[in-house]
């Protein structure tokens, strides 16, 4: 398909642009040199000179495995164990992380934080584990245990379901 310039909707802007260039040439207003400016901001260093070095952003990655809860079906008054493996990594191999590990329980119109632990961790594999008791008065039904890992400005969540039954 061939597009003719005279019938193109771009005709007017293109003609206007070309006319502006020709007018600038005729007036002698074209710049002698085109300057480019860096995208980073210039900041003053301690000695008063401009510092244009870029600050490299360190990438942080959290990789989670699927969390496991055992047993999947539990009677009130018994214990369950939540476990989730995760890995911390960064582009800076020497990086250590300020990590917050949270385990939360939700279901039956309730949300409850079971555990919250802050620590400093090296890169590599880690395990988030919590054994907790099911209260004897917890209503039977389906519940969800969620593991939350926060490191730097990154957060990842992993959740698994389990069932609470009445005691026989």
Summarize this structure as a short list of keywords or feature phrases.
mainly beta, 4-stranded antiparallel beta sheet, 168 residues, 10% helix
Q: Give the averaged pLDDT, no decimals.
A: 79
Q: Which stretches are low in confidence, meaning pLDDT under 50 for 5 or more residues running?
A: 29-43
Order of helices and strands: HEEEEEEEEEEE
The biggest beta sheet is recorded as: 5 strands, mixed
Strand order of the largest sheet: 5-11-10-7-8
Which geometry do the CA atoms define? Answer: elongated
Counting helices, strands and paired strands, the structural category is mainly beta
Compute the number of helices.
1
What does this structure look like?
This protein is mostly beta strands. It has one helix and eleven strands. The strands form three sheets. The protein has a five-stranded mixed sheet, with no helix packed on it. It is elongated. About 9% of the residues have low confidence.
């Amino acid at each position: 398909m061939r597009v003719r310039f005279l019938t193109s909707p771009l005709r007017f802007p293109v003609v206007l642009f070309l006319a502006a260039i020709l007018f600038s040439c005729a007036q002698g207003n074209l710049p002698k040199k085109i300057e480019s400016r860096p995208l980073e901001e210039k900041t003053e260093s301690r000695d008063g000179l401009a510092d244009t070095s870029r600050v490299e952003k360190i990438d942080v990655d959290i990789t989670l495995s699927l969390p496991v809860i055992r047993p999947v079906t539990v009677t009130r008054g018994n214990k369950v164990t939540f476990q989730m493996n995760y890995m911390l990594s960064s582009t800076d191999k020497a990086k250590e992380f300020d990590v917050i590990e949270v385990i939360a329980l939700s279901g039956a119109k309730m949300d409850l934080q079971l555990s919250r632990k802050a620590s400093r961790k090296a890169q590599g594999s880690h395990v988030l584990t919590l054994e907790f008791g099911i209260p004897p008065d917890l209503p039977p039904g389906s519940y969800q245990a969620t593991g939350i890992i926060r490191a730097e400005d990154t957060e990842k969540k992993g959740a698994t379901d389990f069932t609470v039954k009445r005691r026989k």
